[in-house]
Write a structure and sequence with these properties.
The chain has 126 residues and is of the alpha+beta class. The chain contains two helices and eight strands.
Length: 126
């Protein structure tokens, strides 16, 4: 199997020993994105909705670098430090995805990198 790393400057640089995404055949595995602004590598200013929106903008940039879009996502996992924010995530998702929506899991976690409150990763087919 061939593994091809995917990289774009339009999403935050990896802050560890991982790639922004890996393509294997027609599957692309997008690493978790947190609400970092790519140009500054700082958490986006604003409320939870702004942070969730930045997460999906980052995922969208990596998907585009792989030759796809968020509408090619077949599986999405969202990590939240407060599950009360789930309705806001649903609302934000509506502006990034078209039906049929991807399969999805939402996982409540104690903490996330850089102290953020939302992260998402995805698998897409290109």
């Amino acid at each position: 199997m061939n593994k091809k790393p995917i990289h774009t400057n339009d999403a935050p640089a990896a802050i560890g020993t991982y790639s922004q995404a890996i393509q294997a055949g027609n599957l692309v595995f997008l690493s978790g994105q947190i609400p970092l602004v790519p140009a500054t590598m700082e958490v986006v200013d604003g409320d939870f909705e702004a942070r969730a929106r930045q997460v999906f903008e980052n995922l969208q940039a990596v998907a585009a670098a792989a030759g796809g879009s968020l509408n090619d996502v077949v599986k999405l996992t969202i990590f939240l430090t407060d599950l009360d924010n789930f309705a806001t995530v649903n609302s934000v998702m509506e502006s990034f995805f078209e039906q049929p929506f991807p399969a999805r899991a939402a996982v409540g976690v104690a903490s996330l990198p850089k102290g953020v409150d939302v992260e998402a990763d995805a698998i897409l087919v290109v």
